[in-house]
Amino acid sequence: MTRVAILISGGGSNMLRLVQDMLAGGHAEPVLVASNDPEASGLAKAAALGVPTAAVDHRGFGRDRAGFEAELLKPILAARPDVLCLAGFMRVLTPAFVRQFEGRMLNIHPSLLPKYPGLHTHQRALEAGDTQAGCTVHEVTAELDAGPVLGQAVVPVQPGDTAETLAARVLVQEHRLYPLVLRQFVAGDRRPVFLDHVQ
Fold first, then answer.
1. Are the CB atoms for 52 and 31 separated by under 8 Å?
2. Which of 58, 109, 138, 175 is catalytic?
3. CA 160, CA 86: separation in Å to the nearest integer?
4. Domain 1-101, CATH 3.40.50.170 — does that match?
5. DSSP secondary-structure letter at 159?
6. Which CATH number applies to 107-199?
7. Is 197 tagged catalytic?
């Protein structure tokens, strides 16, 4: 069975959906949830579901990204994952780290890439006057939020939306999209999944 490790930085709501879907579907096995923040509440949620956890606090490494990643790699490699999923992991990974998981690392991003890589995606969509927002699951490459798209879900922008209200509606679709894409990915199907205009 495909072994999946998940990296988080906070509450881990997308991680939870992935783990729950794997446990229910039997198509993959969640072997590790790791975080750059020992206080991330998602760690306790993963542990409650029986998934091993690990934490490496990035703050102790200052600007030494390579040093942080070397420590983070230890529990990841020990878990022997076939696929690595980023689910709200808020650290930019170095090209050297990404290369080790090339072709088998996924990320979910809260915009319709290639629009709005990086942060503050919902505010940027509103400021641009977009009529649609959404989320994207993509393969991770050395270039930030630029890997091949594996799935997208579209969310209409509504009159009076704020970044917060839009983010909340997009998050609902993130929870639908990411498990679908992972199921397809572990089955060897790289065709993009598109969920359009879901309320």
1. yes
2. 109
3. 31
4. yes
5. T
6. 3.40.50.170
7. no
